[in-house]
Write a structure and sequence with these properties.
By secondary structure, the chain is an alpha/beta fold. The chain has helices spanning 2-21, 42-59, 81-97, 108-111, 171-175, 183-193, 203-207, 209-223, 227-239, 246-258, 262-278, 299-302, 305-318, 335-356; strands at 64-68, 101-103, 116-125, 137-146, 151-160, 178-179, 282-284, 322-327, 364-368, 391-396. The protein is built from 14 helices and 10 strands. The termini are far apart.
């Protein structure tokens, strides 16, 4: 006991002496993060990222089966002309330079062989490489995941200049009436953006990959005008364990509308509204005439708006809660005018909802964000950034 006490005493003495003699700590200034790499041309960005991940694939030895889960915008989850061009060029690169790689379709049969799966995002970003403010470049993230090992085996990030990049959404996404923060799309995006080489593939992505393959086929059928095939595939996806997702609800509405099934389309839109409200955010593409609170007069664009608003009113009334309606505009033009315009448009939609459903009177608040919360942010003011000119609906606790 005396020996142990002596040791404790000695250690305490050393510590106290060290504390007495130790000079005050020097506060080191935080090292600023390295600036993002200068953007290169779209073609060069594809080559840089593609060569990096394909080289890693062939380094594992032997012939490798690779499938491409369609690339998307890293904020909205939309496929576009740009993301599809990326996939095409990556496929060409693999065929021309990497004979060890066997590209196969992204479907259930191929997934059963546990191939390498490529995912990627292509996102407009500002000078700080963030999807906010003035977008000056595109951040291209590409990841290769090995279904056999369950881990990420390659990753590359590049930046592309905006010149010549076509961000027009693919048809199924351009036609889709609504958007929300969807867990399935988040899982895909995080698999690319939030992993590093050697990390496990996120379970949320793995659990939904078979449904994602069905949805990819449904989108392809819809874009080709094969609406019956698309409806069957979207229905199969909906019946799957991970079928409760935005792309499926949008697809079921779109295909039934294209097939002239008006009642079923209205019910499908109602399901889409319910899904969005349950996820606390439903962004709807209610497009207005420039500088006006009147909807665009083209019936091909606004012909379904009355039905949409009735479904939103009915589903919102059924929640017995309050509803916040928020208008958004693109960032182009005067910020002050955009702010005012977004408010009066939200007020106009609020009035329409109250007219449709008396039970909502006194339970709706209107707000405007102008261009402060752009999802795309390219400032193109065309189909490519239609989501920036959205109206959002959210269930809130107080009116």
């Amino acid at each position: 006991m005396r020996f142990q006490a002596t040791i404790v005493f000695v250690l305490a003495t050393i510590l106290l002496a060290g504390c007495a003699q130790q000079p005050p700590p020097v506060v080191q200034a935080a090292t600023p993060p390295a600036p993002p790499a200068a953007p290169v041309t779209f073609d060069q960005a594809v080559l840089n990222a593609g060569n990096a991940v394909f080289s890693a694939a062939v380094a594992t030895g032997g012939r490798q089966t690779v499938v491409i889960d369609p690339l998307v915008n890293g904020v909205t989850g939309e496929q576009s002309a740009a993301t599809r061009a990326l996939a095409d060029r990556l496929a060409d690169l693999a065929r021309q330079r990497y004979p060890q790689i066997d590209l196969q379709p992204f479907n259930a049969a191929t997934l059963a062989t546990a191939p390498l799966v490529m995912v990627g995002t292509f996102t407009p970003v500002n000078a700080q490489n963030q999807p906010a403010g003035t977008r000056e470049a595109f951040r291209f993230c590409l990841v290769l995941a090995d279904l056999k090992s369950g881990r990420t085996i390659a990753k590359s990030v590049a930046r592309a200049t905006p010149e010549g990049v076509d961000t027009t959404p693919a048809r199924a996404f351009s036609d889709s009436p609504a958007w929300t923060d969807d867990p399935s799309e988040k899982a895909y995006i995080n698999t690319c953006q939030a992993t590093k080489v050697g990390d496990p593939i996120p379970p949320a992505y793995l659990n939904g990959i078979l449904t994602a393959a069905i949805v990819a086929q449904a989108i392809e059928a819809y874009d080709s005008g094969k609406y019956n095939d698309a409806l069957a595939l979207y229905s199969d996806a909906r019946a799957s364990p991970n079928g409760d997702q935005l792309r499926v609800f949008n697809g079921l509405y779109l295909t039934r509308a294209k097939l002239g099934q008006r009642d079923q389309a209205a019910a499908a839109f109602g399901d889409l509204v319910k899904y969005g409200l349950q996820h606390d955010r439903l962004a709807v593409k209610l497009l207005f005439r420039p500088g006006s609170t009147a909807f665009i007069a083209d019936p091909q664009v606004s012909g379904a708006y009355d039905m949409w608003l009735r479904q939103i009113a009915d589903r919102s009334a059924a929640t017995a809660a309050c509803l916040q309606v928020t208008g958004h505009t693109s960032a182009s033009g005067s910020a002050a005018l955009n702010e005012q315009l977004s408010v009066v448009r939200a007020e106009a939609v609020k009035t329409r909802l109250e007219q449709d459903t008396a039970a909502l009177r006194g339970r709706i608040v209107a707000a405007g964000m102008g261009g402060r919360q752009n999802l795309v942010g390219t400032g193109a003011d065309n189909a490519g950034d239609a989501l920036d000119r959205r109206v959002e609906f959210k269930v809130v606790s107080r009116c």
